[in-house]
Specification:
Strand content: 15-25%
Radius of gyration: 46 Å
Number of strands: 25
Distance between the termini: 48 Å
Number of domains: 3
Length: about 600
Amino acid sequence: MKNKKTNRTVLYALLTALIFTVIVLLGGLRRIDKWAQDKLFQHPKYLGSQIMVIGIDEKALAEIGAYQTWDRNVMAHALEMLASDPEHLPAVVAIDTLYSGESDPEADAHLAEAASKLPNVVTATVATFAEQGWYTDTDGSLKYDPYRIVAFEEPYEALKNVSVQGHINAMYDTDGVMRHAMLYVEPGKRYYSMAYQTASLYLGESGQGVLAPPANARGQFYVDYCKAPGDYYDCSFATLYKGELPSDHYEGKIVLIGPYATGLQDSYYTPIDHGQAMYGVEFQANVIQQILAGNYRREVSDVLQALLLFVICACAGIFFFRKKLLPSLIVTLVLIAAGLGGSVLAYEHAGLILHPLWIPLGVLLLFAVSNIVNYIRAAAERRAITNTFERYVAPEIVQEILKEGTESLSLGGKLCNIAVLFVDVRGFTTMSERLDPEKVVFILNRYLTMASTCVEENKGTLDKFVGDAMMAFWGAPLPQEDAVYNAVKTAQGIIDGMKRVSAELKAETGEELNVGVGVHYGPAVVGNMGSERHMDYTAIGDTVNTSARLEANAPKGCVYISRAVADELGDRITYTSLGDTVKLKGKAEGFEVLKLESIV
């Protein structure tokens, strides 16, 4: 039975762990887990001041005019302001807005000329992705590519010739939060992002090489944001345009120019702040800062994490199914803390991105399931114990037995000292031969009901009925402080109760009943005897046999007890010693028999 219970425990744990692992692999926790990653991993940090953002903000729109009315002379003039002091030039200027196609020739030439006066200018390219992933290839076959590029725009030729191009595409995660940057797009050939090109030029000015981010197969990499929305903003485009920005503010720095007003529709929700959108130019600044620092994070394979999750949850489940609530709760809290803390440490010190909620929620689920199963199993065990013992003992004893669990239900017994009582009707065989069976059963039930009630009232264990005989004992299944006294009190109660029952039966049936009782105290083996499917909770041993012999020799209306019983009770009873004048079958000469007179 123990092996079966252990096997079921392991099966429950493995099955629950497997189900949870499959759920997380299918994306069941994706949204809440991403939220936890954002809260645990993304925090503002100081990483130098080599980047400044000049925003095309509400002030600029108010002073220069609506953005739709700007021609390319406006940006050209701003670039001329940055180049106005040749001794104090910015290292790189990146313009986060697209200038594709020819427009006014004079304005186009003006912007290209202004860009040529600066050391490094990065201009924007934009790829357009198909709205539908499915498409028909040139060979007529149906294919699926959610990242298929259907159009690609670059700066007009003159500006393209005097600048370096970088794409400004961005793509949300499935929950509408921008956690990844696109290192490159490939509309025929590979085009790197504005952030990567800007960082490369900046590091190249000092003779350093750029460490490429660890992009996935789609060209994406995880962004470790260092500043929240608004933290990169330095000044309004209007300040630069009017020549009011001192050159020492941008000398040797990366200058980013881009939309910084709600109406320009260039903002995104990011993991560093779910409540406030970040403008695209600030997103570029964060990505540039990460590339400059080479501070990359690598997302650990979901399959590898799922394997670890399954092992931890399975082991935790096996532990939970075997333990009580408190140790299980302690282990649960430790594993939750380890899962959350470990993911933070892995992120900060090893650059690894883990799913912070997989292990904590998995362990919590196993803890909950195990406690539910344990509760159901305990309830079943309580019912089994109750069904087994309520036939034998008083309800309060059953409640005490429930505290010990189902160990008391397995085959086997234990040696303990018990007081054993036997009672039998005198002359019952003769009476049953001359009465109708129905009357015999009626008389017998009245007597046994009275006798068993006496046992129950005195907290005894009713062992069995054998015809007109009844056996009960005290001191098992639980130890009792006054087992012998309760047994003797029951014996006297049966004698007294029999007088009342006999009088009632005399009036109702014309028959009288008389009983003899025997009580002995000593060691016996008590437990479940029989087979796995059919067993009896009983006591065996010499103590039981001696009690039966005492009862067999007791005259009607008398209780015979042993010296062991008298010694246990001392002056709490009065008795008459019969010495060894009563010979008990199977007992050696000199066994003393005593007749109970009264209970004090």
